[in-house]
Amino acid sequence: MKRRPGRSSDYHRDPNRRPLTVITLQLLPRFTVENIHTTWAPSGARFQKGRPMTLNANQDIPLVDLKRQHAALAPEVDDAFRSILSTMQLFLGPNVQTFEEDFARYLGASDCVGVSDGTTALYLALRACDVGPGDEVITVSHTFFATVEAIIETGATPVFVDVDPDTHTMDVEQAERAVTPRTKAIVPVHLYGRMADMDGVMAVASRNGLKVVEDACQAHGARRNGQAAGTIGDAGCFSFYYSKNLGAYGEAGGIVSNDPTVSERVRVLRDHGSAVRYHHQEVGVNGRLDEMQAAVLRIKLPRLEEWNRQRRAYASLYNERLRDLPIGTPAPAGEDHVFHLYVIRHPRREALRRHLEAGRIHTGIHYPVPCHLQPACMRYGQGQGSLPVTESLADEILSLPMFPELTAEEVDRVCESVAEFFGGETVTGTHVEAAQ
Length: 436
Description:
Layout: H1 20-27, H2 66-87, H3 94-107, E1 111-115, H4 118-128, E2 136-140, H5 146-153, E3 157-161, H6 172-177, E4 183-187, H7 198-208, E5 211-215, E6 223-224, E7 227-228, E8 235-239, E9 253-257, H8 260-269, E10 274-276, E11 279-280, H9 291-300, H10 304-322, E12 342-345, H11 349-358, H12 388-396, E13 397-400, H13 408-421
Parallel strand pairs: 2-3, 2-4, 4-5, 5-8
Antiparallel strand pairs: 1-9, 6-7, 8-9, 10-11, 12-13
Helix pairs in contact: 2-9, 3-9, 4-5, 4-8, 10-13
């Protein structure tokens, strides 16, 4: 089997109002050149050590900027890569084993199995839960295609349900109505970094004898009532794709579980169905995690909590600055949202996106075509109009720049540009402290 894929407003000119950039930099003291966790400086930037960076108004603001993060990590990464290359033990070695142990401990899971990518994680977790031909798996259409792809690859049939209009995650009542005698599992998606309603999902699963495989590929470190995303169901699947909150330098993935039967079967399946070399007890895949990616993940993992805190702080700042504008912003959240993406909503999404791009502010759409309307899934869906919330979201959502090394000044500029689109101004707020 082949490998699976896994212009500025007048706001600051008012002498009677304190500039928000000053306020936010006091609330977020770490975001200075001295403490921003990076030696990166943009072209045209002017700064002194320990003082906020001043950005050129014409400079691009990317949706994600991985160069800033790498600049701070480069020496450690270089040393790790040299060490690996000195031994040429390139996969399933000490870095993989140590990362598996560290990530499981971080999440509070019994075990973690590293694999090649997030899609493979989903596929192998489903197989380890005995999902296969003839089975139905309930999931959402408002997700990256890999969620559905993994179900189809097992031979099972995806059954699509709509999402909650506020959280954009699975509508649990619809999920229960979708259960049939052929239903084998539920795959809730912790979308954009927000945890799905796992209490509801687990109740449906318990009442109907179903397996639960969590798609936690965008929710590294999200927690609710002390439980981490990925540790509640029978298995939790993570993508360590390079732009994720915890990302490798390419592709990588992982499966966590508190069920040793699931973990052990995944270990066999990821290595061609082999527990002992050249002895194959079933047909598996080439889905092993390599040492270099594991080494990068080991370096990044101790920083993940701080990076997530920074994401929440910037999301809170966005919400405060945008609250009086006619757009939908993410519903309030606490530790159960790690803001892999910051997504707003407006019917004139394309015009707003063009306006922001004209100001060199880059955006994304996650996702423009729901899975049930993709050509590859036409035989599984019920066509246009069957999932109204999902379809409406696909026409209106827009992802704004979000990454830990973002600056308060950049957030100001994004919000000012959004306000200009509506002919208004943003407001000063103080509740960003709650995100600390």
